[in-house]
Amino acid sequence: MTAWESVIGIEVHVELRTASKMFCGCPVVFGDRPNTAVCPTCLGLPGALPVTNGIAIEWLARIGLALHCQIAPSSVFHRKNYFYADVPKNYQISQFDLPVCTNGWLDVVVDGEEIRVGIERAHMEEDTGKSLHQGSGGRIHSATSTLLDFNRSGVPLVEIVSRPDLRSAVQARTYAQDLRALVAELGVSDARMEEGSIRFDANVSVRPIGATDLGTKVEIKNMNSFRSLERAIASEIDRQINLVEGGGVVIQETRHWDEAAGATQGMRTKEGSSDYRYFTEPDLVPMVMVPATIERLQADLPELPAERRHRFAQLGLDPQVVDVLSGTEPGLRRVFDEAVALGADPVMGANWVTGEVTAAIRKAEATTADIPFTGKDLAELVTMVKEGSLSSSAAKEVLAAVIMGDGSPRAVALARDLMQVSDEALIGAAVDQVLAANTEAIARFRGGEEKVLGFLVGQVMRATGGKADPKLVNTLLRQRIT
Q1: Which H or E run includes 60?
Q2: DSSP tag of 27
Q3: Poorest-confidence range of 7-11, 149-153, 384-388?
Q4: What is the Cα–Cα distance from 380 to 398, expressed in whole angstroms?
Q5: 470 contacts 478 by C-beta, under 8 angstroms
Q6: Strand spans (E) along 362-474
């Protein structure tokens, strides 16, 4: 039986959060009343001429630099000609053979293995309007009518095209998640899948393992979550393998992911570049990428997700904690970095940030911008727990109080009488009292019942009001009964 491998490339469309659209002065908005953020240019009315948004081009270059792309010294726009109701000009201003960004890469880690995914290109175009299909299912084939909202028409849209370097649905999902994180980190887009400001299409083909020629690719659309993307690609891989093994032939087409059915459905045969009759946009002058501007953009790049993961790994953090911490909100990462800089144990700090701190903030229905919890507070809290002056359970109570604005961790712990007792003489006296009252338990321990020690520790903790250092209690008990 033939063994197959999948070949996957991802096309990503990113709406930029510029103040105005790509070729006109209309505002970039989400959720406004339909057709209120429009003008003759984005409606494609006769005589309206486009003007390039310079900030959008800088942000495109910023994305390209973060993806290690080469920035072309010059570039031009083209007209991509096709007719559809949400494209009012009957063409889309895009780029063809002279994109701004080419030949980049993004490293992703899957199951502990680092994979380099090539970036073929990143180019600028304008978004289309939005079609609202009326009727059951919300799809065009079942619609009784279609409403058009052109608020989105003309919004700056960056298309990032990967090379076919991905070999599984899991790899594709990881790449998509990492690319979204990178775009969000750059601040050029809110990158919200639920609002359509970042959208993923997948090109999938299969071939026998060892073959070098690519199979016929199928494009998959309508994947509205990372889970959907992974499921859709896995389903399409299975469909193509079953089709070929059954004597069928894969055709180049665009397919729609049906979440409810858990399968892709055919939409239309896939067009080639010649079908779009590209030609240079005559109403826009060529762009020249000024070297000084590119140098400035390069110097202003923030720490990127892959760099951050490497830095966190160097601190000795568990790989799973690294992934969670790398993807958490920037405010929490800043709290962690500040705490480590102040001497907090990195492993303990990361575990608290990704666990109890995150949970407490969510419970308070707040964000790091809303609460008085700083890196200094985290460092103090972690150090108190590590030194044994505060138990883990008491630390959770202290954390909740700090988040509510009751003061620093030490101040809260003192005010609520939560500090642990680490005085060996005081704890030793409590241990002696407990042992004198539990001679039978001592005999059972000496007879091999190790679990009895936990009972004795509990008795000492009760005798000290829960304030004794459990580690010291354990040590003193063992010294006295062994």
Answers
A1: helix 54-66
A2: B
A3: 384-388
A4: 11
A5: no
A6: none
Q: What is the mean pLDDT of residues 229-255?
A: 95
Residue 56: pLDDT band (50, 70, 90) is very high
Task: Indicate the SS3 state at residue 8.
Answer: strand
Q: Which candidate, 456, 429, 427, places its Cα nearest to that of 440?
A: 456
**Residue 205: CA atoms inside 13 Å, Cβ hemisphere, count?**
19
Does residue 414 or residue 281 have the better pLDDT?
281
Return the residue matching tokens 């680490």: 422
The pLDDT tens digits of the residues spanning 359-396 come to 888 887 777 778 888 999 999 999 999 888 888 888 99
Total Cβ atoms within 10 A of residue 275: 12
The answer to whether 155 and 161 have CB atoms below 8 angstroms apart is no
Tell me the chain's radius of gyration from C-alpha atoms: 30
CB neighbourhood size of 479 (10 A): 10
For position 422, what pLDDT does the model report?
66
pTM summary value = 0.80
β-pair type (156-162, 74-75): unpaired
Q: What is the mean pLDDT of residues 210-239?
A: 94
Rounded CA gap, 24 and 21, in Å?
Answer: 6
Contact 264, 255 (CB under 8 A): yes
Strand runs (DSSP E) across 44-100, as ranges? 70-71, 74-75, 78-81, 91-94
**DSSP secondary-structure letter at 377?**
H
Q: How far apart are CA 23 and CA 41, in angstroms?
A: 7
Cβ–Cβ < 8 Å for 166, 120: no
**pLDDT tens digits, 154-167:** 999 999 999 999 99
Domains delineated in the chain: 4-296 (no CATH), 303-415 (no CATH), 424-481 (1.10.10.410)
pLDDT greater at residue 92 or residue 192: 92
Distance, CA of 252 to CA of 395 (rounded, Å):
59
What pLDDT score does 23 carry? 97
Q: Round the average pLDDT of the chain to a whole number and report it.
A: 90
Q: CA torsion, points 297, 303, 307, 310, in degrees to nearest 10?
A: 160
Contact 57, 297 (CB under 8 A): no
Give Cβ neighbours of residue 22 (< 8 Å, ≥ 6 apart). 50, 52, 53, 56, 93, 124, 125, 126, 127, 154, 155, 156, 157
Written as six digits, the tokens of 283 are: 């109403």
Cα separation of the two ends of the chain: 65
